[in-house]
Fold each of these.
Amino acid sequence: MGRSGKLPQHIAIIMDGNGRWARERGLPRVEGHRRGIESIREVVRAARELGIRYLTLYAFSKENWGRPKREVNFLMSLLSAYLDSELKELEENDIRFNVIGRVGDLPPGIRKKIERNISQTRNHKALVLTLALSYSSRVEIVDAVRQLCRRVQLGELRAEDITEGEFSKALYTSGIPDPDLLIRASGELRVSNFLLWQISYTELYVSEKYWPDFRKADLIDAVEEFQKRERRFGKTEPEESGVKRLSLTSGALR
Ligand code: IPE
Ligand code: IPE
Ligand code: MG
C-alpha cells in the first residue's frame, strides 16, 4: 500500500456475484451467499486494519425481495446468524454497527438483533460498518422528500431553506460522509439503485472477481487504484500536474 496516497474515508461496496460463483462450481446459489459471508468478515477486518472510517455494504436490495422465496429465506437466515456471530468481533474491534434501508420490511427477529447490535456498539469509534438492507436509493430519496414536506407543513422549515446539506440530512445516511470509493464486485457496470445521491463525486472501481472471491488483497488493490486517481470535483487540476502535462505534450510534439 502506497504510504503517500490519501486513504478513502468511506468505502461503499456492491457485493455482487454470489450466484454466479456458485453456478460455476455446480453448487446451489445459496452456497455462494454462504461463502460471501466469509468475504464480508475478511473485508470488514481489513478495512478496520487499514484505518478506513466508514464501510457501507450493499447486502440486500428492496428489489431482491422479488427473488424466489427459498433464496430470500436463506438470505434472511444467513443475516440472522451473521448478526449473532459478528457482535463479538464488532465489540472487540471498536466497530459501530449501523443499517440503512427500510428495516421495517425485515422479519421481527432480525429487527431485534439489528437493534441489539446497534445499541451495543453505539459508542464505538474506529469504524462505522453500515449494512444496506431492504435498501433502494430511490425509496430513500422519496422518504427524504416526504420527511422534508412534513416539516414544511408543520412550519418547522421553509421550502427555500431546503439546501443540499439539509437534503443529505434527511437521507438514511445522515451524518455519514459521502463515499470516496465505490467498489462493485463481479464485473457488472451498473449502480443497481445504490446511494444515487451520495455517489455524485465518488470514484468507481469494478472488480472482475465474484464477491465470494473478493478478499483483503482485492480491497487493497482498490484502495491503491483510488490513490492514483486525481479527484477534481469539477475544478481544474492542481498547478504542478498542469506543468507536467505541458512538458509531456511538448515532448510528444518534438
Ligand atoms: C449478490 O450476489 C448477493 C445479493 C444480491 C443478495 P447475487 O445473488 O446477486 O449473485 P449473482 O449476481 O446472481 O451472481
Ligand atoms: C445489487 O446486486 C444488490 C446487492 C448486491 C445486494 P443485484 O444482483 O441485486 O443487482 P443487479 O440485478 O445485478 O442489478
Ligand atoms: Mg447479482
Amino acid sequence: MSHTAVVTPQSAHQAPYNVAKLREDFPILKREVHGKPLVYLDNAATSQTPIEVINVFADYYGRYNANIHRGLHTLADEATEAFEGAREKVRAFINAPSSREVIFTRGATEAFNLVANSWGRTHLSAGDEVLISMLEHHANIVPWQLLAQQLGFTIKVIPVHADGALDMNAYRALLTERTRLVCVNHVSNAFGTINPVKEMASLAHQAGALIIVDGAQAAPHQRVDVQDIDADFYVFSGHKVYGPTGVGVLYGKQSLLEVMPPWQGGGEMIDTVSFEHGTTFAALPHKFEAGTPAIAEVIALGKALDWTENVGLDAIGEWEQQLLTYSTQQLQTIDGLRILGTAEHKAAVVSFVVEGAHAQDIGLLIDQLGVAVRTGHHCAQPLLHHFGVEATCRASFAAYNTRDEIDIFVTSLRRVIDMVR
Ligand code: PLP
C-alpha cells in the first residue's frame, strides 16, 4: 500500500490531510536528482515553495511593479496595498495586537541584529547579563557577542539536559536582578526541541527581563501566538515557511519599539530631514524599514502564509509528528546510529550520527541517491560541541513529505553506510 494515501488527522473537525494533492502545489518536488526522484528532507534549512507563491513574482513584476508608500500613481497604490496587506497577514499569523508591531527584515538574522543594535545598544551595559540558551542558532548568539564586546555586559548560557531539553531549574537559577534579556528559540533547528517559551517568558518577566524568541523553526510547524507567549520580540524567516528568501519578520511589543532608536537610516524611515534641525523619524513600523524593501518577497510571504493557513497549521503539525515518529522508529533500526535530541517535546527534525561513517560522507553519497539532508554543525556549534560532535546528519520534514520518502531515505542511508564502513 502506498503511504501517500489520504489520512485523517486526530482532530475530527479538520478535513483529511491529503499529502499527495498538496504535493502538486510544489513543482520542484517533481524533479529528479542524479536520475532519482528528489526526496527533500532539508526543510529546516529552507522549505520549498508552492506555485502560487512563485507566481507572485511574475504577477508583481509583470503587472504592478512600483516603489511603495510615496507614489501617487495606480501602480504604486497597488504595490503599497499588496505590501501592507502582507503585513496584516503576518500580524494575523502570529496574532500580534497591531500591524505596527510587524517589521519586515531581510530574514531572522537581520531581525536579531536590529534588536541588538537598537534595543541592545541603548539598554545594555557593563554589569548586565544576557541569558542565551545552549540550543541557539548562531543568529541569536553572535549579534549579542558582538555587542557584549563593545558594551561589556555578560553572556550566560542556559544549559541543556542530555536529551536536548533546556534545564529549566538552571534557567530559574540564572535569572537574577542583573538579567536584562533572555534569548531562546521556540524550536531548535539542530535537535528539534520545542522549548517552553511561554513559561520562560513569564519567568523572565518576573525577574524584570525581556525575552526574544527565535521562531524560525516554529512558524512553519505550529500555531504561533505572540500574545499568549507574551514574547517581547519574536522573529522568523520567510523562506522556512514556504515563502521566498530575502524577507523575515521582527515582531516587537509596541511599547518597546516606540522608544527604540532606528538602527539604519535612509529613505522610508524618516518624517522630516533638515541640515539645520536634523531628522525626525516615521511612525512604526516604518521607522525600522529604511530604504526600498523587498516588495515582491513580502507580498510572496503573505501568499505563503495564506497557503499555510489553507492547509492548516494544526493539520501540518499533526502530519509532521507522524513523520517524526515513523522516521525515528525506522532510524533506530540502523546499527550504530545515534539520534541527538530526544526531548519529549520535539518538532519534525531528526539529527543523528553513525558510528564509523562521517556525516559529510553520508550527506554527499545520499545525494547521489536523490536524497537531500543537511550535514554539518547546523549553525549551532556550541550545542554540538557540548554533545561532543562536530557534525550530524539532519533530516527535517515539512507539510509535503511522506512516509514513502522516509522509506527511501532509510533504505538509501543503509546503502550509504554499507559503502563507507
Ligand atoms: N534561527 C534558527 C533557529 C534557524 O534555523 C535559522 C536558519 O537556519 C535562523 C535563525 C537564521 O535564519 P536566516 O538565515 O533566514 O536569517
